[in-house]
């Protein structure tokens, strides 16, 4: 992975960690998601249309398939994740989702997009995945060791399903950027429009709730609405410069950055396992950075 791609991934991961910290402090639901999506759309769609030489209607069929598929997959991912959180513990669903997502994405990139990491690249990918599980999986490992919790299978199943959808939209986005050659800004902005339209029937059922959410979390809605698309646009731009098999796991350094932010701003506990996970992730990123 060249230096420019790595810098884009790390910058995107940093913004991802920051906007997740803001969203966590909001402690909100679908209304919050829909409103910050509209902030993102209002900000980035005009810029995308202005900077794109070809009008959206001039895009080919494959481009529109990618745009719609990505938008729908992002929505399904969010709904599956929330369903998982309703029926199982976060300590099971979250590490499974964040660990299996990059794993499935790497396998898909190799099988479907023809990415072929070098041996040292595979070692870097493995180190990052191991770091992900160590950082997020303390609760998961304890539950697996107990082996008697009836919610265990549900948590693992919903976490893995969430990871599958993370991999699915990551692969679609990789196909759109690397194979179809779409401009990241226009592609992402149009995908945002699809997401907002798909979520609208649920969000508009409670318009009074939307108004309350806006009054209560206006600043956080705007902050996430700006930072979230910026974070992912940096990742999409990195896909123009490096294989998806490298970008997908490397962007999960956001977990490490989020851990540091949580420790300093939320006073969350940092365990030895999480420190070991940080070390593994840094080593994995260093190995990927050494790849041409």
Features:
mainly alpha, single chain, 0% strand
Provide a quick synopsis of the model.
This protein has 292 residues and is mainly alpha-helical. The chain has helices at residues 3-26, 30-51, 61-87, 90-112, 119-136, 138-146, 152-179, 184-203, 207-238, 244-250, 253-265, 272-289.
Largest sheet: none
Mean pLDDT: 79
Strand elements, count: 0
Tell me what portion of residues adopts beta-strand conformation.
under 5%
Helix segment tally: 12
| Estimated structural class | mainly alpha
Which term fits the overall shape? globular
Descriptive report:
With 292 residues, the protein is an all-alpha fold. Helices cover 83% and strands 0% of the residues. The chain contains twelve helices and no strands. The model has no long low-confidence stretch (mean pLDDT 79).
Write the layout of secondary structure elements.
Blueprint: H1 3-26, H2 30-51, H3 61-87, H4 90-112, H5 119-136, H6 138-146, H7 152-179, H8 184-203, H9 207-238, H10 244-250, H11 253-265, H12 272-289
């Amino acid at each position: 992975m060249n230096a420019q791609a790595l810098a884009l991934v790390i910058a995107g991961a940093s913004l991802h960690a920051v906007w997740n910290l803001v969203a966590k402090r909001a402690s909100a639901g679908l209304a919050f998601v829909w409103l910050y999506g509209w902030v993102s759309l209002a900000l980035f769609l005009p810029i995308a249309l202005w900077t794109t030489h070809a009008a959206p209607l001039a895009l080919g069929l494959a481009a529109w398939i990618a745009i719609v598929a990505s938008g729908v997959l992002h929505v399904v991912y969010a709904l599956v994740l929330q369903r998982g959180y309703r029926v199982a513990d976060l300590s099971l669903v979250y590490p499974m989702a964040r660990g299996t997502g990059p794993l499935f994405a790497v396998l898909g990139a190799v099988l479907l997009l023809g990415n072929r990491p070098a041996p040292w690249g595979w070692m870097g990918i493995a180190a990052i995945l191991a770091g992900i599980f160590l950082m997020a999986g303390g609760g998961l490992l304890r539950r697996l060791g107990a082996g008697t919790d009836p919610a265990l299978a549900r948590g693992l199943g919903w976490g893995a399903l969430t990871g599958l959808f993370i991999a699915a939209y990551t692969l679609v986005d990789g196909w759109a950027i690397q194979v179809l050659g779409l401009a990241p800004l226009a592609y992402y902005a149009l995908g945002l429009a699809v997401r907002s339209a798909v979520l609208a029937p649920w969000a508009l059922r409670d318009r009074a709730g939307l108004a309350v959410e806006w009054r209560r979390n206006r600043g956080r809605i705007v902050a996430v609405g700006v930072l979230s698309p910026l974070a992912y646009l940096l990742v999409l731009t990195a896909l123009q410069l490096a294989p998806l098999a490298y970008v997908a796991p490397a962007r999960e350094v956001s977990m490490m950055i989020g851990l540091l932010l949580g420790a300093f701003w939320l006073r969350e506990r940092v365990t030895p396992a999480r420190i070991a996970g940080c070390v593994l992730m840094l080593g994995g990123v260093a190995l990927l950075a050494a790849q041409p």
